[in-house]
């Protein structure tokens, strides 16, 4: 899909690959940062791929809160604003309104979900792109039931992080290379 709602963590992790980045203390290993940087670099270079943003600018405010104008991720986001698709997102005070079954989802990420759903309601096809936020795994079933498509740039790494934080949710044999060898590979389809 050519259109993407980009989670702020993607911009931060990609920026951390830059030697001048202030994000040296990121918990994402260098090899995974390179995967995220490569995705963002390809996204930047492809004029056919658009950024999806909310008209209320909630996503942009979050980007600006977490990144500086000199960070690679912010540079890409600002360039992509020229061709971005802006969609209507309803806010109830500080947080975006999402379907009831997603009410327990992380408040700061609701605007991403709402923008994705609004874009799809307008006939668009898009994904939400995530690098390292494990909340997307926590609510996988509810997101899927609502038709939300999350593109995990680091699926194996992020899944392992989710299980590390939530060991009670790890299915038997998951993460064991002998029982689940496919589950340990990270993003094979870096564009």
Order of helices and strands: EHHEHHEEEHEHHEH
Give the overall silhouette. globular
User: Strand order, biggest sheet?
Assistant: 3-2-1-6-7
Strand content: 5-15%
Give the termini separation: 11 Å
Question: Could you report the average pLDDT, rounded to the nearest whole number?
Answer: 88
According to DSSP, the number of beta strands is: 7
| Cα-based radius of gyration, to the nearest Å | 16 Å
User: Uncertain segments of ≥5 residues (pLDDT<50)?
Assistant: 179-191
Structural class: alpha/beta
Total helix count? 8
Helix content: 25-40%
Biggest beta sheet summary? 5 strands, parallel
Write a structural description.
The chain is of the alpha/beta class. The chain contains 8 helices and 7 strands. The strands form 2 sheets. Strands 3-2-1-6-7 form a 5-stranded parallel β-sheet, with helices on both faces. A two-stranded antiparallel sheet has the order 4-5. The N and C termini lie close together (11 Å). The model is unreliable at 179-191 (pLDDT under 50).
């Amino acid at each position: 899909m050519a259109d993407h709602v980009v989670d702020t963590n993607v911009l931060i992790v990609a920026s951390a690959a830059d030697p001048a980045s202030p994000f040296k203390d990121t918990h994402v290993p260098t090899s995974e940062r390179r995967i995220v940087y490569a995705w963002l670099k390809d996204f930047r270079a492809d004029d056919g791929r658009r950024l999806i943003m909310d008209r209320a600018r909630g996503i942009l405010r979050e980007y600006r809160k977490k990144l500086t104008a000199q960070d690679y991720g912010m540079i890409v986001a600002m360039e992509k604003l020229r061709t971005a698709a802006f969609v209507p997102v309803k806010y109830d005070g500080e947080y975006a309104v999402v379907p009831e079954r997603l009410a327990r989802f992380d408040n700061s990420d609701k605007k991403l979900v709402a923008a994705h759903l609004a874009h799809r309601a307008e006939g668009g096809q898009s994904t939400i792109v995530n690098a390292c936020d494990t909340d997307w795994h926590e609510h996988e079933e509810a997101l899927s039931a609502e038709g939300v498509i999350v593109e995990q740039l680091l699926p194996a790494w992020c899944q392992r992080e989710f299980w590390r934080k939530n060991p009670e949710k790890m299915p038997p044999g998951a993460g064991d290379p002998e029982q689940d060898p496919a589950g340990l590979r990270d993003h094979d389809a870096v564009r």
